[in-house]
Amino acid sequence: MPTVDEVLNIERSFLGEGGQRFWNWYPAAPGTAWCDIFQSYCLSAVGIPTHFAWVSAHFDYYRAQGRTSYDIRSATPGSLIAFEWNQTPGGYDHIAMVESVDANGVTAINGNVNGSRVQRLWHPFNGGGIAEVAFPEYSIAPTPTPTNAKDRDMFHLTNQQGLEQYVALTEGGQVVTCWTAKPGGTFNTWSELKPGIAGSNLSAEMLPNGCFSVTLAATGELWATWQETPGGPWVDWFKVNDLRKFLGA
């Protein structure tokens, strides 16, 4: 059974992407509202078979299992939130997945918003339209946490938009991170930055374009990853020597 971190990492990997991949998967005609198709795609990708395009039907499914709540402050990372803006006759208007929670609202990953893209948005508890929370069933696995052995294993970065991010190593050499979704906001929980690698000699910095970059020594090689856009998704780990060949350096 997948963990919350696994499904959130899948969702984060699509930040900035449009609807074509998700229309093809469902399948649905281009132009179809795809906020719930996106959530279905990501849940299915980690092993929770889901196939909904209609938000109300999705919540009916969880409600029948006793896995919903109208107490919107009960939302937790990995839960689904339904929105009621009175724009869709007979049903909810939108769905998103909670990434982190603060005293006044949630940061969530949304499909089909702001120009029909996958985006990370903050939604207030008061006046934001959140109507109901659904709780997919996840595995209860320990969240990776950083080592406290050496200060050099942790970096605190702030980009040009005022977004903060910590990058650190666990005892097992995993690279983990936590960040704020808005300037001065609450840090979310620790999660693995980009699964699939473990090592030592961590280094993190901000690039001139405002994106963060991380390097790590692993398997006798130097590896790197960086954000595609400031505050956005991270590219797959890349051997630095392979990258030099790729760039013709």
SSE blueprint:
Blueprint: H1 4-12, H2 20-25, H3 35-45, H4 55-64, E1 68-69, E2 80-83, E3 94-101, E4 105-113, E5 117-124, E6 130-134, E7 154-158, E8 164-169, E9 175-179, E10 191-192, E11 200-206, E12 212-218, E13 221-226, E14 238-239, H5 240-247
Antiparallel strand pairs: 1-6, 2-3, 2-6, 3-4, 4-5, 7-8, 8-9, 9-10, 11-12, 12-13, 13-14
Helix pairs in contact: 1-3
Plain-language structure description:
- The chain is an alpha+beta fold and 249 residues long.
- It has two domains: 4-134, Alpha-Beta Complex (endopeptidase fold (from Nostoc punctiforme)); 151-247, Lipocalin.
- The chain contains five helices and 14 strands.
- The chain has helices at residues 4-12, 20-25, 35-45, 55-64, 240-247, and strands at residues 68-69, 80-83, 94-101, 105-113, 117-124, 130-134, 154-158, 164-169, 175-179, 191-192, 200-206, 212-218, 221-226, 238-239.
- It has a six-stranded antiparallel beta sheet. Strands 7-8-9-10 form a four-stranded antiparallel beta sheet, with no helix packed on it. It has a four-stranded antiparallel beta sheet with strand order 11-12-13-14.
- Strand 7 and strand 8 (164-169) form a beta hairpin.
- Helix 1 (4-12) packs across helix 3 (35-45).
- It is globular.
- DSSP strand tally: 14
Mean pLDDT: 88
The proportion of residues in beta strands is 25-35%
Structural class: alpha+beta
- How many angstroms separate the termini? 44 Å
Cα-based radius of gyration, to the nearest Å: 19 Å
User: How many helix segments?
Assistant: 5
CATH topology of the largest domain: endopeptidase fold (from Nostoc punctiforme)
Please bin the fraction of helical residues.
Answer: 10-25%
Query: Sheet with the most strands?
Result: 6 strands, antiparallel
Strand order of the largest sheet: 1-6-2-3-4-5
* CATH class division of the largest domain: Alpha Beta
Low-confidence parts, pLDDT < 50 over ≥5 residues? none
Number of domains: 2
- Assign the CATH architecture of the largest domain: Alpha-Beta Complex
Instruction: Report the order of strands and helices.
Output: HHHHEEEEEEEEEEEEEEH
Q: Which of globular, elongated, flat, extended, rod-shaped describes the shape?
A: globular
